[in-house]
TrEMBL record:
Pfam families: ADH_N, ADH_zinc_N
Record-annotated Enoyl reductase (ER) domain positions: 11-321
Domain of life: Bacteria
Protein name: Quinone oxidoreductase
InterPro entries recorded: ADH-like_C, ADH-like_N, ER, GroES-like_sf, NAD(P)-bd_dom_sf, QOR-like
Keywords: NADP, Oxidoreductase
Organism whose genome encodes this protein: Devosia rhizoryzae
Length: 323
């Protein structure tokens, strides 16, 4: 039996239930992991609440690091004793788990387990957004909403290293200062300032090339006003609620704009793409281009408190759960 944090019904953090499950032994293509650190992400809250439905019951969490303690038939990607990490594979809130070997990424020397758990999902999100969805070029200007969050701190540093001018938004003076210390050229406190007006001032009326928005409903329409003609709005999250665009004509009126709603599920469907992104991410960390900020840690058994803190915008940087 192993301790897991299960979701038997959708709802608030109170539905997260500490239970003991018999997870069995790995089948073909699977491994058993003893987990060492678990990353907390907004997608965990979306699945728990039912916004992103999963079959019930399920074990929460999508990202962790661990040590391989058993392998199933046909596994060639890893061996017993390997330190590995993964993302995008539900079931992370557990002391031990079974996982598909094809989704595991070896942790390189020089990267500790908590850093890997804090960065893989968020860092791969930053990778596909900055390198694939809109390949950011030196001299371009971008906006990153929630720049002091876990993904934001990684992405803004990376974008700055690519030569972009980076405008961040954040929701308090403390978060503004943190974002500025992590690569943003300009940071706007969206709670006290009209960020669309400030962006037009910063860009001399031109607007930005691309907006990266994981906040959702609260920032979407004003973000369209920040774009230059034929700029791209990248909506990749729903922290403030889901976005709806009932009138596509708004895109024409605001400058023949483009909008996309990408997800890592499609960018990393193939193992080769997963390893490409992970290699680029870990290389950026080792080079110093990205410094990983772990804002808080919680015991795995206190995961409900961690969800409340994340949803209450009380966290900065990455949050790690410790089994």
């Amino acid at each position: 039996m192993t301790r897991v944090i299960a979701v038997n019904r959708t709802g608030g953090p109170e539905v997260l239930s500490i239970e003991n499950w018999d997870i069995g032994e790995p089948g073909p293509g699977q491994v058993k992991l003893r987990q060492t650190a678990v990353g907390l992400n907004f997608i965990d809250t979306y699945q728990r609440s039912g916004l992103y439905p999963l079959p019930l019951p399920f074990v929460g969490g999508n990202e962790a690091t661990g040590v391989v303690i058993a392998i199933g038939e046909g596994v060639t990607e890893v061996k017993v004793g390997d330190r590995v990490c993964y993302q995008g594979t539900p079931g992370a809130y557990a002391d031990e788990r079974l996982a598909p070997a094809a989704k595991l990424v070896p942790i390189p020397e020089g990267i500790d387990d908590q850093t890997a758990a804090a960065v893989l999902l968020k860092g791969l999100t930053a990778f596909y957004l900055l390198f694939k969805t809109w390949p950011v070029q030196a001299g371009e200007t971008i906006i990153w909403h929630a720049a002091a969050g876990g993904t934001g701190l990684i992405a803004t540093q990376w974008a700055k290293a690519l030569g972009a001018t980076v405008i961040g938004t954040a929701g308090s003076p403390e978060k503004v200062a943190l974002a500025k210390a992590h690569g943003c050229d300009h940071v706007i406190d969206y709670k006290s300032e009209d960020f669309a007006a400030r962006v037009k001032d910063i860009t001399g009326g031109r607007g930005v090339d691309v907006v990266y928005d994981g906040v959702g409903k609260a920032t979407f329409e004003a973000s369209l006003d920040c774009l230059r003609p034929r700029g791209l709005m990248v909506s990749f999250g729903n922290a403030s609620g889901p976005v709806s665009v009932p009138d596509l004509g708004i895109l024409a009126r605001k400058g023949s704009l483009y909008v996309t709603r990408p997800t890592g599920l499609h960018y990393f469907a193939e193992r080769s793409a997963l390893l490409e992104g992970a290699d680029a991410l870990f290389a950026a960390i080792k080079s110093g281009a990205i410094k990983v900020e772990i804002g808080r840690t919680f015991a795995l058994g206190d995961v409900a408190d961690a969800h409340r803190a994340l949803e209450g915008r009380e966290t900065t940087g990455s949050v790690v759960l410790l089994p």
